[in-house]
Every structure is written in C-alpha cells, then in structure tokens.
Specification:
alpha/beta; 3-stranded antiparallel beta sheet; 10 strands; disordered N terminus; binds S-adenosylmethionine; RNA methyltransferase activity; transferase; S-adenosylmethionine-dependent methyltransferase activity; SAM-dependent_MTases_sf
C-alpha cells in the first residue's frame, strides 16, 4: 500500500473495475450514478470567482505542495542534454506546484503559466523566486487569463503574432518578448513570437471547469500546441474517494459537484476524456486510471484515490 508522497504518483494498488463494481452495487451511492437534469433557470456556477476567493483566503502559500512526482509521470518534461529550449504552457497554474518541478528539471525549459487569479500568480512568482532554482526572469512567464471563455493570447501563436496586444493593464506578461513583463512591447515580426508551445500541462485544472466548457478549453490547447507535441494530463478519476463523499445537494451535473467554497470538481471516466480529446483532433498516447490506497495519518482511515493519467499528441499534419 502506498503512503504519503509516494502515493501520489503512478501506482495501481487496486483495479478500477473492482472499485466500480463496489460503488455501482452500493444503494447508498446510487445518486452519483443517476442522470442529472438541471433545475429550470439554474445559473451556471461562477467557478473562476470562487477560485479567486479561494486564492485570496489562502494567499500565504500554505497550500503549496510541489508536485515532485511530476517528472516521474512525465519524464519528457526533462529533455536530455543537448535538446533545444522547450516552451511549456501550464494551464491553471495556481501557486506553481506544477511549474516548479518543471523549471527545476532543466535550465533550458521556459514556462508560460496562466490562471484566472492575479493574486495566485503573484504567489506563484514569489514561491518560484524563493525556490533556489537560479534566475527565473527569462524562464517563468505568468499571465492572467480566464481560459474557459477566452482564447489564449495571440503572442503564443506564430501566425497571429502581428496582432499581439500592446497594452498590459495587469502587470503580468502580455507580449511575445519574454524579457518584457511590463507590457510595452515592440513588434518585430515573427522573431518576437513564441510560435506555439512544445508541451501543455493540464494538471488538476480541467476538472475545475464546467463540463460544457471543456471542449472549448481543449480546442484552444490543441491550437496553441506545435504539431507533434504533447499535452500532459492528470486529474480526478471517476469514483475517487472525494467524489463519493459529496452529498446529493452538491451535485450540479453528471459527475460534476460544487464544493462548499463554490469551486467545481468534475470526475473523469476514461471514455469521456478520450472523446473530449479525440474530438479536438488529438491522438491518444497514454490514458489510464491510477488507483492508490493511502492512509490518513491522523484518522488512520483508508482512502481509495483515483486519478486519470493521460498523454495526448497533436498530429504532425
Ligand atoms: C486545482 S488548481 C491546479 C493548479 C495547478 N495546475 C497544480 O498542479 O497545482 C486549479 C487552478 O485552475 C484555476 N482556474 C480554475 N478555473 C479557471 C478558469 N476558468 N480560468 C483560469 N483559471 C482557472 C484556479 O484558479 C486554480 O489555480
């Protein structure tokens, strides 16, 4: 049985099908399985606002936990010596838990990272600046974006770099020249363009977006990725312990729940995730449940965690 940090990465302590049988035959859990029909005129949950409040409440960075297992799951994020610079886009970066191990792994990696909360981007900058990984000015570029309703900025794409914005009211990176974090960029044609990214990381982020907006987010990820490059995915899996603990009142969609702080959580089956990514044009390289048994140190309670691990590629043509 995996415990503590070790429990966080690739593991198969139990078969997902066994858990499925257990859950689907338990009458007390039946409400998680039934189709969901939204009450008439129900407003969509305002998840980005809830996330901004969440980050305001947790601005000390106490919630920060570097995802040390990330490179074990996704070794391609640490390119071998001699590889050229790789651009990574971390979507929904929070306080930088995923950004930090990526920056730590290789000096030649540059990370662009977006989130809907200006406050958490500040926290991420602080956490990373104090993490003892050397100068990060040219390697870490946070920017503000509500990605469930807005496309990625033009400067991340090659074809559109001429249209990139010149003003930056947020104080975060808004131009194609990574030296420029203040916003007054000068346009110099394609040389100032990032030209798409080599990797996208979607780590515990897609589950925070309303289900109906997921196709938009994935389509945007597809368009900003260079041909042949990878999207690396990890998120909550169907019948994870945290899903089964939600009471019926917090159910806001099929496999979709609203936490008491207003943030959303969706739980992915492999089939649904496969459909979402293949519909956007991706090719599936890896997709599986990661099932981990761990023990709560304080209560001694056993926990059955289910995550989904995926790697998807944008085809060359
Ligand atoms: C659970 S955190 C994951 C953070 C990070 N990827 C990690 O590995 O720890 C999800 C993040 O997505 C951000 N987020 C949620 N919905 C968003 C949206 N619509 N637009 C931009 N950011 C969003 C939240 O602010 C939060 O920081």
């Amino acid at each position: 049985m995996a415990e503590g940090r070790e429990a966080e990465y690739h593991s198969n302590d139990f078969r997902w099908e066994e858990l499925r049988e257990e859950v689907e035959s338990d009458p007390s859990l039946r409400y998680h399985l039934s189709p969901f029909s939204a009450p008439p005129n129900s407003a969509p949950p305002p998840s980005p606002d809830a996330w901004r409040s969440f980050h305001r409440r947790h601005s000390t960075g106490k919630f920060f936990k570097e995802r040390r297992y990330l490179l074990k799951e996704f070794p391609e994020l640490a390119p071998s010596d001699g590889d050229s610079v790789a651009n990574v886009l971390e979507v929904g970066c929070g306080n930088g838990s995923t950004v930090l191990p990526i920056l730590r792994a290789k000096q030649s990696v540059v990370v662009y990272a977006c989130d809907c909360s200006a406050e958490v981007l500040e926290t991420a900058k602080e956490m990373i600046a104090t993490a003892n990984i050397g100068p990060i000015k040219h390697r870490f570029h946070p920017f503000l974006l509500e990605f469930s309703v807005n496309p990625f900025p033009n400067w991340l794409f090659c074809a559109n770099c001429q249209k990139m914005p010149l003003a930056n009211p947020t104080g975060f990176f808004s131009g194609a020249n990574p030296d420029n974090m203040s916003g007054s960029t000068s346009l110099k044609g394609s040389q100032c363009c990032i030209g798409g990214v080599d990797f996208i990381t979607l780590i515990f982020t897609l589950s925070a977006v309303p289900f109906r907006k997921m196709p938009f987010v994935i389509k945007e990820c597809f368009s900003v990725l260079r041909p042949g490059c990878l999207l690396l995915f990890r998120d909550y899996g169907l019948y994870d312990m945290t899903m089964l603990r939600f009471p019926v009142e917090q159910r806001v969609g099929f496999r979709e729940y609203l936490r008491s702080d207003g943030t959303l959580s969706y739980f992915f089956s492999l089939d649904i995730l496969r459909d979402l990514f293949l519909c956007a044009g991706f090719v599936e390289l890896e997709l599986d449940y990661c099932c981990v048994r761990s023990v709560n140190r304080r209560s001694g309670k056993k926990m059955q965690r289910v995550w989904v691990h995926g790697k998807f590629q944008k085809p060359m043509t």
